[in-house]
Amino acid sequence: MGQGKVIIKDAVVWVGLARTSEEKSRGLSGRESLAEDEGLLFVFDKKDFHSFWMKDMNFSLDIIWIADDKIVGIVHNASVFDNMNGGIPAFLSPEPVNYVLEVNAGFCEKNYIQVNDEVLIQAQ
User: Fold this and answer.
1) d(CA 31, CA 71)
2) N or C terminus of the chain with fewer C-beta within 10 Å?
3) Which band of pLDDT confidence, cut at 50, 70 and 90, is reported for residue 18?
């Protein structure tokens, strides 16, 4: 798995890169936590609608939908459990995206990150 960093406003996130279908499928499943400045960046070959679910997750996330270099949507505090249906929740991008950044729940609020913010991705 490659590594890189994502910069949004003054926030720097050190990321693992999920490029292969196996890495994307595994995501952050089974991890106990992330450091405050750590995340996982999903890299897609082309823009499309992407769905993410919280299977085998142990903590909540903020899911940031990115098209090229701009945030087009944010799921704040994506929960591990779907309290309404008792299942595993899934989240669909609001429009076609080619990157998805997962960070700790509350990260966006703490760093004043919003839709339409520009994103700088530096990846190996």
Assistant:
1) 25
2) C
3) very high
